[in-house]
Write a structure and sequence with these properties.
The complex is a heterodimer of chains A (about 280) and B (about 250).
Chain A lengths: L6 E11 L5 E12 L3 E5 L6 H8 L8 E3 L2 E4 L2 E2 L5 H7 L4 E4 L3 H4 L6 H12 L4 H14 L5 H6 L7 H13 L5 E5 L7 H17 L3 E6 L2 H7 L2 E6 L2 E7 L9 H8 L23
Parallel strand pairs in A: 3-9, 3-10, 7-8, 8-9
Antiparallel strand pairs in A: 1-2, 1-4, 1-5, 5-6, 10-11
Helix pairs in contact in A: 4-5, 4-7, 5-7, 7-8
Chain B lengths: L2 E12 L6 E12 L3 E5 L6 H8 L6 E7 L2 E2 L6 H6 E4 L13 H11 L5 H11 L16 H13 L5 E5 L7 H18 L2 E5 L3 H7 L2 E6 L2 E7 H5 L6 H12 L4
Parallel strand pairs in B: 3-8, 3-9, 6-7, 7-8
Antiparallel strand pairs in B: 1-2, 1-4, 4-5, 9-10
Helix pairs in contact in B: 3-4, 5-6
The chains are: A alpha/beta (about 280), B alpha/beta (about 250).
């Protein structure tokens, strides 16, 4: 199915200057291609997984620097675009769902108006049509009473609803790629499953590409097709999600073994021994 | 064997009149000495509120709380805090940003009237696996796992019998979580501590605890031994739902 990749990233580096005049490499020589599939990026805090998502959308703020051979979106190198053209890419062609809906929704604007605004920025439709579309979207993310939610403010929503609203808002301009950065980490386990199922269904129906960024190895392996495992800014291993337990890199093994399991009680958990050569 | 912690018909509420929310309703818990008890449930189910009520952080409480055979007094006295200590979820928020590790531990020891504080600070650091080098660091110079170790050292300072753990690892990476869980297992063995741990992660609770209570909307719907949980043999529908949700997201 992955004939021509939607997104092709090669030689991506993100660097920040440090106070003592050095350079900190947040992402090093990262490359991957994304088709119409679900790609997971897993790593611990500071591994560069979120920076990768931001770099694709050119959202790394100075003094941070993004250098890459190319970041091609269907053949178009995003690095060559002007800031003005880039704004047309964000939201319309690649959109992003962040971790905590509390911080990504505007607290003083109703949910409905925010979705309508997101839609009308990218499509020239009347207010009435936009409202219709927004209500359809809210229904698509399994919100029971879309009319009421449309008029509600974000603080009246639970975390799970907030995140579904974010997903609705991000999908309303029909992007080709959705980058989801820890979309369910702020949610309860029982709600996580629901939100993921909804996201999965919409992504599949629309034939979108999904980049799913998470620290949770199990979650990603249950949900994605392919996984990149990042350590200190590098991809240390790429594997099929179903074959995660066959992973060979010591870091991946270490992460897997450090998780307590419900079905296999153990007296002590394995502690990850970090090897400096992994990041070299 | 007497119970380390017992609650009888514990009720906790917030607000009053129309705005009253019953956060915990008629909770009965018995945690025998030297065992570990887990409380699981989703956000807002009242699991953390039980811990906060035990240590006296919530004033609006009814029912009885018995620690090692004695009913607690409100406000709690010094002896209570020598017996019961708590570790909070977020190590970034629970340490004073402008107090060094040494100040944090020294102050706690002083409040509890210990004399040989110099030796005790060093011993505490050693017990939680930090070593002397960390003694004069500030919280921002520590990683999340190291901070949680400091928080645990502070809780251990008064030599308590009981530790209340409120999601002690949910803000940490999985590899660091493993280190902290191992530390908690070791400390329990060395000091024959009693734990009550709150978490939303069934596997984490099952790792540390022998018995687990499941909470929903402020009510303990089921208390079951961890072996039953591991065999996925829950009686209550909500527990089954939690187990399924946990399996769906790859956490079985």
């Amino acid at each position: 199915m992955t004939d021509a990749p939607l997104l092709d990233v090669k030689g991506l580096n993100v660097t920040f200057p440090t106070r003592d005049g050095g350079i900190f490499h947040a992402v090093r020589d990262l490359g991957f291609t994304l088709g119409r599939e679900r790609l997971g990026i897993v790593g611990e805090s500071g591994s560069g997984k979120s920076m990768t998502g931001r770099a694709i959308l050119r959202l790394v703020r100075p003094p941070g620097k993004v250098i890459a051979d190319h970041i091609n979106l269907e053949g178009q190198n995003l690095l060559d675009l002007s800031e003005r053209d880039m704004r047309k890419v964000r939201g319309q062609r690649i959109s992003m769902v962040m971790q905590d809906p509390k911080f990504s929704l505007n607290p003083v604007m109703t949910v409905g108006n925010q979705i309508v605004e997101a839609y009308r920025l990218h499509a020239s439709v009347s207010k009435k049509q936009a409202k219709q579309k927004a209500l359809e979207m809210l229904e698509a993310v399994a919100i029971r009473d879309p009319e009421r939610v449309f008029r509600a403010y974000p603080h009246e929503m639970s975390g799970g609803m907030g995140q579904r609203i974010m997903i609705a808002m991000m999908l309303v301009p029909d992007p080709e790629i959705l980058i989801a950065d820890e979309p369910t980490s702020a949610l309860d386990v029982s709600v996580q499953g629901d939100v993921l199922r909804i996201m999965d269904k919409l992504v599949k129906e629309r034939g979108m590409g999904l980049i799913f960024i998470s620290h949770d190895l199990n979650l990603v392996s249950a949900f994605c097709d392919r996984i990149l495992i990042m350590y200190a800014g590098r991809v240390v291993e790429t594997c099929e999600a179903g074959k995660l337990h066959e992973a060979t890199h010591p870091y991946t093994r270490g992460l897997l073994n450090s998780l307590p399991r419900l079905d296999e009680p153990r007296e002590r958990l394995d502690v990850l021994q970090r090897d400096p050569s992994w990041s070299a | 064997m007497s119970a380390a912690i017992e609650t009888r018909e514990l009720n906790v509420w917030f607000g009053k009149g129309r705005d009253r929310v019953d956060a915990v309703r008629d909770a009965n818990l018995i945690v025998p000495q030297g065992t570990s008890h887990g409380i699981v449930g989703e956000s807002g189910s009242g699991k953390s509120t039980i811990l906060r009520a035990l240590v006296g952080l919530v004033p609006t409480v009814s029912g009885e709380m018995i620690i090692e055979g004695t009913s607690v007094t409100t406000p709690r006295n010094g002896a209570f805090y020598k017996t019961v200590q708590m570790v909070f979820q977020d190590p970034y928020a629970s340490l004073h940003p402008r107090h060094s590790v040494d100040q944090v531990l020294n102050e706690t020891l002083k409040l509890h009237g210990f004399g040989d504080r110099e030796d005790r600070v060093l011993q505490l650091l050693k017990d939680v696996g930090l070593g002397e080098a960390f003694r004069f660091r500030f919280p921002h110079q520590l990683s999340g796992g190291q901070r949680q170790r400091v928080a645990i050292a502070r809780a251990l300072a008064p030599q308590p019998d009981i530790l209340l753990l409120d999601e002690p690892t949910s803000a940490l990476d999985v590899s660091v979580q493993a280190e902290i869980l191992n530390l908690l297992v070791d400390l329990r063995a060395e000091r024959s501590l009693t734990y009550v741990m709150v978490s939303h992660d069934l596997a984490v609770v099952a790792h540390l605890c022998g018995e687990v209570s499941v909470m929903q909307n402020g009510v303990i719907v089921e208390t079951l031994p961890v072996e039953k949980l591991r065999r996925l043999e829950a009686d209550h529908d909500y527990t089954k739902h939690l187990l399924k949700a946990s399996a769906d997201t790859g956490h079985a």
